[in-house]
């Protein structure tokens, strides 16, 4: 095997390993892992959730579940830190290494969604996507890296737009008491904003036609 294929092989093996871990490791194990880190527990949580933002097929639900159990409602702000880091990492992964590497992180099916986002990209679109499509913010970041948008306007907008949503998420999260309720809340909020986004697109397309 040629040496140039070694990095691809290592990436593929790491991808498979992380995906297997995300779907097979019990929540209790994740809780023990994070909790055993002591004062470094927030950093461990941020790192684990960051992996799910960068490698799209990884499931973040077990980690968020454990995070709420350990940190309570403050886990919302830890997620904000992780998502901000992934905003930078995903952008530069796409900008430096291009579409082929992004495909390895997100999978063949998801790369088509990223291509569609990249074709329609702009600062206005970025603002709308950050507000209403937070559930695919990792895809949005990858898509931005595949366009000619400059990093600093992209980064500043991404951070500023995420602040009101995070505060709203935190205030709403204060109304729940258990990790299960918190996970359900995340899904409900994500689906609600996605529905608004989809309906808005249809209305605008209807007016354009």
Automatic annotation (TrEMBL):
An example Gene Ontology cellular component term from the record? plasma membrane
Taxonomy, superkingdom: Bacteria
The alphabetized UniProt keywords are: Cell membrane, Membrane, Transmembrane, Transmembrane helix
What the entry lists under InterPro entries is as follows: TMEM64 (IPR015414), VTT_dom (IPR032816)
**Location(s) in or outside the cell:** Cell membrane
Bilayer topology? Multi-pass membrane protein
Q: Which residues cross the membrane?
A: 34-56, 76-98, 152-172, 178-199
The keyword Transmembrane helix belongs to this UniProt entry's keyword annotation? yes
Q: Which Pfam families would you find in this protein's record?
A: VTT_dom
Where is each VTT domain found?
60-172
Task: Write out the similarity annotation.
Answer: Belongs to the TVP38/TMEM64 family.
Q: What is this protein called?
A: TVP38/TMEM64 family membrane protein
- Please tell me the species this chain comes from: Candidatus Woesebacteria bacterium RIFCSPLOWO2_01_FULL_39_10b
Q: What lineage does the source organism belong to?
A: Bacteria, Candidatus Woeseibacteriota
């Amino acid at each position: 095997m040629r040496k140039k294929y070694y990095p691809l092989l290592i990436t593929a093996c790491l991808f498979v390993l992380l995906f297997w871990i995300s779907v097979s490791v019990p929540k209790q194990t994740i809780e023990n892992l994070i909790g055993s880190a002591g004062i470094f527990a927030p950093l461990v949580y941020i790192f684990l959730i960051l992996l799910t933002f960068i490698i799209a097929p990884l499931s973040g639900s077990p980690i968020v579940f454990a995070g709420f159990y350990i940190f309570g409602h403050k886990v919302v702000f830890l997620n904000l830190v992780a998502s901000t880091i992934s905003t930078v990492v995903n952008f530069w992964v796409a900008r430096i290494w291009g579409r082929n590497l992004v495909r390895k992180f997100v999978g063949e099916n998801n790369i088509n969604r990223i291509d569609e986002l990249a074709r329609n990209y702009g600062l206005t679109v970025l603002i709308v996507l950050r507000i209403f499509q937070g559930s695919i913010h990792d895809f949005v970041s990858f898509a931005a890296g595949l366009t000619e948008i400059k990093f600093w306007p992209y980064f500043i907008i991404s951070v500023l737009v995420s602040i009101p949503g995070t505060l709203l998420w935190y205030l709403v999260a204060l109304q729940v008491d258990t990790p299960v309720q918190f996970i359900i809340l995340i899904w409900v909020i994500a689906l609600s904003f996605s529905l608004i986004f989809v309906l808005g697109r249809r209305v605008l397309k209807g007016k354009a036609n």
